[in-house]
């Protein structure tokens, strides 16, 4: 039997995207093995979700390290030693040192709640509403040293309704994120999506983000 894709995840919060990945594995949609879930917050809900699923966990405190690079090296060292083929940043809220990111080129993805390149960074729902956008969405991209700036491989879109609040957008978009992220990981696990000096899908360089229906 062919070895399953081994994935590690980093998360800082409640872990809903991690839960979606685990659920996809449990119901047979996602042929992967989880090697580790790590966090910069010992109380992150994601760690409890992982532990309940029998996945090893690690939490490190950034304050215990003299520099950001030292912390990143320690945490990513745990990820590397877990044997992960792919690292998924699933709500991980820290900027990672560029030298550490470089070592994971083509092997790390992130889910971000905006239609990148719009609204990199925080408060994406608020910024979408303030701009008067009629459409919002989520993106999965390969991680590079540029914040939320790596090649986007897939996006999910939702309409912005009159009277929507930040909470409304966040709630509706999270449903799409929970479909999009497992679908992208599944495409990597199957070999349809891979990295060859850039994203390649079904043997062709990816020139624009895929929709969920493409995966």
TrEMBL record:
Formyl transferase N-terminal domain mapped to chain residues: 6-185
List of catalytic residues: 112
Binding site residues for (6R)-10-formyltetrahydrofolate: 68, 93-96, 110
List of residues binding N(1)-(5-phospho-beta-D-ribosyl)glycinamide: 15-17
Keywords on record: Purine biosynthesis, Transferase
Site (Raises pKa of active site His): 148
Record-level Gene Ontology MF annotations: phosphoribosylglycinamide formyltransferase activity
CDD domains: FMT_core_GART
Pathway: Purine metabolism; IMP biosynthesis via de novo pathway; N(2)-formyl-N(1)-(5-phospho-D-ribosyl)glycinamide from N(1)-(5-phospho-D-ribosyl)glycinamide (10-formyl THF route): step 1/1
PROSITE patterns (alphabetical): GART
Enzyme Commission number: 2.1.2.2
Catalysed reactions listed for this entry: N(1)-(5-phospho-beta-D-ribosyl)glycinamide + (6R)-10-formyltetrahydrofolate = N(2)-formyl-N(1)-(5-phospho-beta-D-ribosyl)glycinamide + (6S)-5,6,7,8-tetrahydrofolate + H(+)
Record-stated family: Belongs to the GART family.
Matches recorded under NCBIfam families: PurN (TIGR00639)
Function of the protein: Catalyzes the transfer of a formyl group from 10-formyltetrahydrofolate to 5-phospho-ribosyl-glycinamide (GAR), producing 5-phospho-ribosyl-N-formylglycinamide (FGAR) and tetrahydrofolate.
PANTHER family, per database record: PHOSPHORIBOSYLGLYCINAMIDE FORMYLTRANSFERASE (PTHR43369)
Protein name: Phosphoribosylglycinamide formyltransferase
